[in-house]
Each structure stands twice: as C-alpha cells, then as structure tokens.
Sequence to fold (77 residues):
Amino acid sequence: MQQVKISIDEEQVDFLNEHQSFGFKDKSSLVRKAIDHFRKELEIQKLKKSAELYSEVYSKDSELQELTGSALSEWPE
Fold:
C-alpha cells in the first residue's frame, strides 16, 4: 500500500485518534473508509445528475415518448 503525507487540523487529528472507538484497527483504515465513502457519494451524485438530464431530454422529446409507449404496450405483463 502506498503512503502519502497530508496535513490536517488539530480537531481532525483528535478525531483520527479515536479510530478504535469507531471500530477501526488504525488511523489509516479510518481514512481509507472515509475516502471510499466520499468517492461513492460523488458517484451517486453523478448518476443522479445523469438521470435528471435524461429525464429532461425525455420530457421534451415526444417522439421518444411515443417509442417508449409503443415498446411498453408490447411488453408482457
């Protein structure tokens, strides 16, 4: 695993020092989990934005709505 040097403030150091009370074996595992969580949240935001854009396009495109409607009418129930 690679190591990096970062700077954090005193309050963040205090939080990291409590890593065991949060169920982490060391400070690094807490930081890795936080980074993974943040990355997943960013991905969710990107997916939501993409869905909003598709929805906007769909709501303005009557031809696409007709195509979707015809496909749904042939879909087995």
User: Anything to note?
Assistant: Residues 22-73 form one domain. Helices lie at 10-17, 27-60, 62-73. The chain has a mean pLDDT of 94. Residues 18 and 27 are 8 Å apart (CA to CA).
